[in-house]
Amino acid sequence: MATGGQVAEDVLSIRSTTGEAVSVPRFVFNCVSAWLLGNDLARGVKGMAGLGRSYVALPTQLAQTFNFQRKFALCLSSSVKASGVIVFGDYSPYGVMLPPHKNIDISKSLIYTPLLTNPRGAKYLGQREFSEYYIGVKSIRVNGKAVPLNTTLLSFEDEGNGGTKISTVNPYTVLESSIYNAVKEAFVRELPDSVTGVNPVAPFGACFRGIRSSWTGPQVPSIDFVLPGKNGYWRILGANSMVEVRKDVECLGFVDGGVFGNLIMPAIVIGGHQIEDNLLEFDLPRSRVGFSSSLLLHQTTCAHFNATTTVSHV
Asked: Domain of 287: which CATH number?
């Protein structure tokens, strides 16, 4: 959320899944000065789309205009040469083109977990708001082994600290310091002996040389965010856990977020790199989120979706 600017209305034009252009006649948005954004946006990007649970967010405004459910699916591409997709409203089906030209519906393989609400919300300009997306991660596994950590940090404290948030604003997953250190140590223990550590490259705290690659990315231990329910977990493979910082050097793509302080801080913020090539469905009426884990397991990516631009199903 910006800390200033002007609220305005305009006509929003967006493409329907049927291929036609449709419009939102009184689309509400916030226009801010360029200095507020600084260098935080990617090259060529002029603004941000609010996808939260608030009643002025894009999913809600589209649902009100076209009379569909407050529901959207997000698939971020890992490629700079190909677009991902975001679909608002009901959809049927998510067609994914797999080699050799076989259509499958990835949505049928989604695992669902409840959306949670931080009881204290987030604080902006003295006001509390509850539009962020939290899920109930119960523990973390590396290579199938439980990571020893203080699991009470994964629940909400009285002040609102704790919990696990999903946020594309963060480029990489951020972990509270003790959780970060525990995950990093467990990850290093599970690496093959042929992998050697090198000096860390900011913002990362663990970098390596000698990691081999496969069709699912760098061959490193899997990281699981374990969720409520039987066999519920979000698996992060090498393509999402590692970041290549220079030739032959890969870093664990998680960031040390420090300890809980005066500002409300989640224990885990699942960031953009870890979401890439994962299909996420945010179902607000049912208060749940569905996720596919890496589409590389299906030998495809978000770039292969039949719809390749932001669309609205009406």
From this structure: 2.40.70.10
Residue listed under structure tokens 């719809």 = 307
DSSP state of 231: T
Print the domain residue range for 258: 1-314
Bridge partners for 23 per DSSP: 13
Q: Which residues contact 202 (CB under 8 A, 6 or more apart)?
A: none
Report the alpha-carbon angle 140-117-67, nearest 5: 120
State the DSSP code for 305: B
Query: Is the separation of the CB atoms in 160 and 119 below 8 Å?
Result: yes
Contact 115, 133 (CB under 8 A): yes
In tens, the pLDDT along 276-306 reads 999 999 999 999 999 999 989 888 888 876 5
* Domain total in the chain: 1
Query: How do residues 195-232 score in pLDDT, each as one tens digit?
Result: 999 999 999 999 999 999 988 899 999 999 999 987 79
